[in-house]
Design a protein that fits this description.
CATH topology of chain A: Mth169, Chain: A
Largest sheet of chain A: 3 strands, antiparallel
Structural class of chain B: alpha/beta
Helix content of chain B: 10-25%
Largest sheet of chain B: 9 strands, mixed
Oligomer: heterodimer
Strand order of the largest sheet of chain A: 2-1-3
Shape of chain A: elongated
Distance between the termini of chain A: 7 Å
Radius of gyration of chain B: 16 Å
Helix content of chain A: 25-40%
Amino acid sequence: MKARVTVTLKTGVLDPQGKAIEGALRSLGIDGVDSVRQGKVFDIELGSVDKASAEAALKNACEKLLANTVVENYRVEIL
Amino acid sequence: MKAAVLLFPGINRENDVARALAQSGVKPTIVWHAEHDLPQGTDLVVVPGGFSYGDYLRCGAIAGRANIMDAVRAHAARGGLVLGICNGFQILCESGLLPGVLMRNRDLKFICKEQHLRVERHDTAYTNAYGHHQIIKVCIAHGEGNYVADSATIQTLEGEGRVAFRYCDAAGHVGGKGNPNGSMNDIAGIYSEKLNVLGMMPHPENLIDSLIGGIDGRGMFDSLGAFGKRAA
């Protein structure tokens, strides 16, 4: 089973990297960009587990390590 | 007083901090992260600076979940002293021993320079050798030192007098251009609720010998040495 975990900064948390990328896109002349927030994607392969236990394991992984829930949100998708 | 100086892969300031401790009469032992227990009779745990696990995932995230950190959490819960410097501060935040998080510096640059701090209180195990609101010159060397916490946490830290050091300029003016990295409330270091855990981004261990530019950092290690003698 394959899964994708996406970790993003919470709204309101300053993201200087996103700001720098935003500025770079503007200087490349790419129009219509209002703002950029940078996050992380984890592609994870799991053994033979059912969907519910995979989701539970990945939620646990996010809470324990993959995300710092002080400043980050996470989303788990089973692909 | 006996100190356990933790060593994780990528930590590189363990010998500097061990030298600073020894100079002030604290006996350091280097302890590898995979250990499950601290050495018998450990009074102080020091988590030194460096780049544990290459700063992968988030600074301090992987080290904060190492085996030895369970023993450190138990030591702190018993009221034992824990000091985290630079990457050590990031590790203490990631391990849940201190609130908040260290984010990328406001201007995205790795900052390596001398930096002045105001000692916010001088009645703790770490600062008793300093004076009231003493301005000290130490060093900073970090890319992620921008202290961030939610407003309730900041209020609690301020209300309980748990801000240890604030960034200031040479004249002692806190904040403004004296704040190098954008930290909320110019916070350079914070204490835990019982004041036994201290995390700070600056390096006091860099300035313990007049040969290398100053001795303002020595006060922290002298404080620990004096605290140890009083407790003994």
